[in-house]
Model the fold of this input.
Amino acid sequence: MNGTVPFLKVSGIPVRLHFTLLMLVGFVAFSSEENIFRDSILLVAIFASVLLHEFGHAFAARIYKIRTLDIVMYFIGGIARLDLQPEARQALWISIAGPGVNLLQHFLIRE
Done:
């Protein structure tokens, strides 16, 4: 995919970073004068949360034998690209799985 670089592969699903996400990382690194450590931790936490959300979609699609081509991470979020268009009921559960992962995060990781 144009404008992306390979990042990692989890359970056979490649994760790619779009150049806009890399620009955001650079922006935080160069503009954070007060507390670059805190800002970096926040950026990593948001990235991890969005990535887990996308894996929720990808693993739900796998239940229906729909392969995930890759996950692309942008500065505004991510997208799990599927190789087939799911049927309506499948699409519903695949769609719910992403926020479901974030809801699970909320209950597992409390302040």
